[in-house]
Every structure is written in structure tokens, then in C-alpha cells.
Design goal:
Layout: E1 2-9, H1 16-27, E2 39-45, H2 52-63, E3 69-75
Antiparallel strand pairs: 1-2, 1-3
Length: about 90
């Protein structure tokens, strides 16, 4: 099973990488950008028996700094459930 963890800075935390991206985009002539926030995506290949609480513990202990970052977990649906209206 695959899971994706999206890690983003909490609102109010300064984002120098986002500011640099914003500045670079404007320098390339892209207008209309009001702000940029950078984050990270971590893809995990896990045993099917891995629980949501195990993934959350991984995030809290290593993958995200919960003082300044939020995280969101998405699991890929097993092929047997795709299109069936069920959620994994």
C-alpha cells in the first residue's frame, strides 16, 4: 500500500523558500501571484497492515516538525475498492 504525507508550514510561520519561489516567478514574468508557500511530499510504500495511527506516529516523530508544520496523510485505495464508492 502507498501513502502520501503532505507537510506544510503552519500559517504565520515565515517561509523563505516560498518567498524565493515567488520572487523567481515574478522575475520570469509571471504575474498575479499573491503568495507562495512551499512544502514537501513524502511517499511511503507500506505493508497493507500498517495502521493510520502508525503513519501518524511516523509523522509526529520524524516526518513533520509539529511545532511549525502541519501534515496530511492520503492513502492509495486498493485496486479492489477503486470505483466501488468505498473508502480505504
Amino acid at each position: 500500500m502507498k501513502a502520501r504525507v503532505f507537510v506544510t508550514l503552519k500559517p504565520g510561520v515565515l517561509d523563505p523558500q516560498g518567498r524565493a519561489i515567488h520572487h523567481a516567478l515574478e522575475g520570469l514574468g509571471f504575474g498575479g501571484i499573491e503568495s507562495v508557500r512551499a512544502g514537501k511530499l513524502i511517499e511511503l510504500e507500506l505493508a497493507d497492515a500498517t495502521s493510520d495511527s502508525d503513519i501518524e506516529a511516523m509523522c509526529r516523530k520524524l516526518l513533520a516538525n509539529t511545532v511549525i508544520e502541519n501534515f496530511r496523510i492520503e492513502r492509495d485505495q486498493p485496486a479492489a475498492l477503486q470505483g466501488s464508492g468505498q473508502f480505504a
